[in-house]
Amino acid sequence: MKILKSEMDLSESQLTFIQKILEDTYKKVEENFTSKEKVMKLFEERDSNIKLLLSDEEWKKYVKIREIMDVKRNEPPPRDR
User: Fold this and answer.
1) CB atoms < 10 A from the CB of 36, how many?
2) In whole angstroms, what is the distance from residue 2 CA to residue 45 CA?
3) DSSP state of 1
4) Residue 57 and which of 3, 14, 24, 78 are 20 to 30 A apart at CA?
5) Residue 27: is it exposed, middle or buried by C-beta count within 10 angstroms (0-12/13-18/19+)?
6) What is the predicted pLDDT for the residue at 35?
7) In angstroms, rounded to a whole number, what is the distance separating the alpha carbons of residues 29 and 26?
8) Cβ contact 25:42 at 8 Å
9) Which residues of the chain register pLDDT less than 50?
């Protein structure tokens, strides 16, 4: 959420709804973590709900931020020298 707040010019209402969507998705993912298909469906549902709250331009920014976060999440941790 911090990144969305700092990188996107969203209203408080949008941020509140997005936070609720993300929290609900997180809970559902925890409950269905054993099924990759269910988790992927939950992520698709999350993005579909968020897209309804955003303009086309905001959605493009959101997608770009998600892509950057996904890449960072998949990077190996730094190694000590």
Assistant:
1) 9
2) 22
3) -
4) 24
5) exposed
6) 84
7) 5
8) yes
9) none
pLDDT of residue 63: 94
Q: Return the CA Rg of the chain.
A: 14
Return the pLDDT at 74. 67
Tell me how far apart the alpha carbons of residues 8 and 24 are, in angstroms, rounded to a whole number.
21
Chain centroid to CA 32: 17
The amino acid at 74: N
Determine how many CB atoms are found less than 10 A away from the CB of residue 35: 10
Q: Which amino acid is at 56?
A: D
Structure tokens at 12: 């408080």
Beta carbons within 8 Å of 45's beta carbon, 6+ residues apart: 25
